[in-house]
Amino acid sequence: QVQLVESGGGLVQPGGSLRLSCAASRSIADFNDMGWSRQAPGKQREMVASFTNGDSTNYADSVKGRFTISRDNAKNTVYLQMNSLKPEDTAVYYCNARFKIRRYWGQGTQVTVSS
């Protein structure tokens, strides 16, 4: 069983920054992959950024150059640094991880970009 707890969401003006955190209940080194997805109202959930195959990272084209995923293995935590935020980044952001044959999800944290 894996628990993922997100934090760090909130309301920010366009051009601003936020850092999301995802704390896992077990060693993140055990996960096959781990990252962030988001879901905006009326839209499908989409991958935002992830670690795969160890240290390899993947980003959605829409966030490349603005978002950075990082991790602290000692704290079992993954971060998403979001800079130059745009209104279209508004969504619920979910941490997720694949452990053995199952994918686990956090409860989500709301990010709202608005003036």
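The above is record 1. Record 2 follows with the same two-line structure.
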Amino acid sequence: QVQLVESGGGLVQPGGSLRLSCAASENIFRLNAMGWYRQAPGKQRELVATIIRGGSTNYADSAKGRFTISRDSAKNTVYLQMNSLKPEDTAVYYCHVMNGNYWGQGTQVTVSS
């Protein structure tokens, strides 16, 4: 059982930045692929970004150029740096591990003036 704890969400104005963190209970290299998803009210959960063991990353079109996924293996933590935030980025953001389909509890991001 992999435990995932997200943090870093909050309220930010349009154009602002946030960095989300996902701390895993296991060595993240063993987890192969990790990612961030988000779910806005009334909408389905959608992929935001992924990072695999080798370091390759993948982004949803909505995140390209604004978001960056990264990791710190020493801390077993995956990050999502979000810049130029828009109101449509408002959602609960979830950390995910593909192997075993583990999810964190989610962290709320609200972009509003």
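The longest strand covers residues 18-24.
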